[in-house]
Amino acid sequence: MGTETGAQIVPDNPEIQDNAYEGVKIPHRALLILKKTLLLILGQWLIIGMGIACLLAYLFPNVAKHGGIIKSQGSILYGAVGLVFLISGLSIPRSKLYTHMFNWRLHALVQVTSFLFVPAVVLAVVHLIIATDPGRLIDPAVLAGFILTSAIPTTIASNVVMTRSAGGDDAAALVEVLIANFLGPFLTAGWTVTLMPKTAEFELWRSGSSDMSQMYRDVFKQLGLSALLPLVIGQLIRWTWEKQTVYILQKFYVAKFSTGCMILLVWTTFSSAFATDSLETLTTQTVIFTVLFNVALYLFLTVVCFTLARPPQALRKTTWGKRVFRPMPPEEAIAVCFCGPAKTTALGIPLLYAMYDSMDLYTKSKTSIPVLLYTTEQIFVAHFMVYVLRWWKRQLEREEKRDSESVVEGIVE
Q1: Mean pLDDT for each consecutive 10-residue tract of the chain (413 residues)?
Q2: Which of 212, 230, 117, 224 is nearest to 181 (CA)?
Q3: H or E stretch including 196?
Q4: Contact call for residues 130 and 197 (beta carbons, < 8 A)
Q5: CA–CA distance, 136 with 154 (Å, rounded to integer)
Q6: Domains of the chain by range and CATH?
Q7: What PANTHER family is this protein classified in (predicted)?
Q8: What three-state secondary structure class fits 9?
């Protein structure tokens, strides 16, 4: 009949046992599926949050636009970015910051890519479009905006957040961000005007404003208050109460707040674009080209940065090749992959308005579209690159572990 176990009677027949437990297995399986689904959604919460931010920007553009209800030029561009750098200051040991200040190879690779290689690639594409598009289906204002985008420095907040999420060296990313945004105000304006095509339709963008003093004041004020000051405060707190700071960071997952700040930056960026109707008036060809070219450019630049940071083994066969093409540590290579292709709205938009202060708002808004879309799309693409680079780093760690185990086994034998 059955076996008595305490107060339960378990049937001896296996078929009866399966039927008896079938009602337990199904709900348990359903709970597992539900749990995996929720974890998947939580893993993509940045993308979901950015989608919601774009929707809110479209429905209520006046709330978070530049000069809107919440004064996002102060509350978000200072507050959200400042919080990111405060958390970075709390999280990064001072020895790592000091080490990377003298990492010349890292500086050369990131800054040359950002200020020389990216403009060269974009300028070649712009001239190709001018030569093959006699009907001007692609708006010249957008092409001028791409040249401006290529010349601005790497972004401030997302590089640090994405590098940290991928398991990279966020101290390296932080140092490169600060250097680039210090150089940017001096390099970008003149570089943009120099690179503008010498054709009649670009004459408006070649004659920029001669008085850039106000722009320099605004940019350095923003860089000081939203980046340098929070970073210094965070470092001082960490130096004074290091154990307590590390405990709070780990206990309350403080680093997640940095990711939330990225959603706020997307919200204010798209609110300004929708408020001026500049997106809606572009031709379909211009919109499709801009969206697809941004993704293709970012992925191409990521591959280039990864190849430069971790050159192929074939280039390191000779003694000379080993010295010249020495691979960077995986953590630094990840930082390069995020810092090299990225661009910032924090400098790009103020610079655009300062350079072309006499230009009408509609034309300035159209010129800003590449800056707005590229800096937003780069966050989407970088979010998925986090998983790719994290997987790559884990593969390297597994290979190193297997090699070390093989060496130990060989010694024992």
Answers
A1: 48 50 60 78 78 91 86 82 84 81 91 95 95 87 94 85 90 89 82 89 77 68 81 91 90 81 82 79 88 96 95 78 82 95 81 76 84 88 92 90 69 62
A2: 224
A3: none
A4: yes
A5: 30
A6: 56-391 (1.20.1530.20)
A7: SODIUM_BILE ACID COTRANSPORTER 7 (PTHR18640:SF5), SOLUTE CARRIER FAMILY 10 MEMBER 7 (PTHR18640)
A8: strand
